[in-house]
Amino acid sequence: MIGTRIKEERLKKGFSLSELALRADVAISYLSSVERNIQSNPSIQFLEKIAEALDTQIHSLMGNKNEELDGDLDEEWLQLAKEAQNSGISKQQFVEYLEFTKWQKQKEQEK
């Protein structure tokens, strides 16, 4: 979960919860709730601030960089990724789209 990864990165840097909140200019209470996975869907803006304060990339907070794919991407997925790149979609825009889609799916499941 994102909160667990943020906490791990914070501890690696030797930051206290309040120090990271101050460096990232976010509320300590919100950061605490994210780290404890109470708030499980933080905004991209929040993640950008945290990633910058931790001197890391958003994608490393969103997913374990050591995880391997469950299989090779098939040719159709590769072609879709190439088309997205060629159409001018940035990696950041794609990440935001994925996060929005996950959020929508989560909201639908909560109903």
TrEMBL record:
One of its GO terms (cellular component) is cytosol. Residues 6-61 form the HTH cro/C1-type domain. Keywords: DNA-binding. One of its GO terms (molecular function) is DNA-binding transcription factor activity. Pfam families: HTH_3 (PF01381), SinI (PF08671). SUPFAM superfamilies: lambda repressor-like DNA-binding domains (SSF47413), SinR repressor dimerisation domain-like (SSF47406). InterPro entries: Cro/C1-type_HTH, Lambda_DNA-bd_dom_sf, SinR/SinI_dimer_dom, SinR/SinI_dimer_dom_sf, TransReg_Diox_bact_type. Residues 64-102 form the Sin domain. This is Regulator. The lineage of its organism: Bacteria, Bacillati, Bacillota, Bacilli, Bacillales.
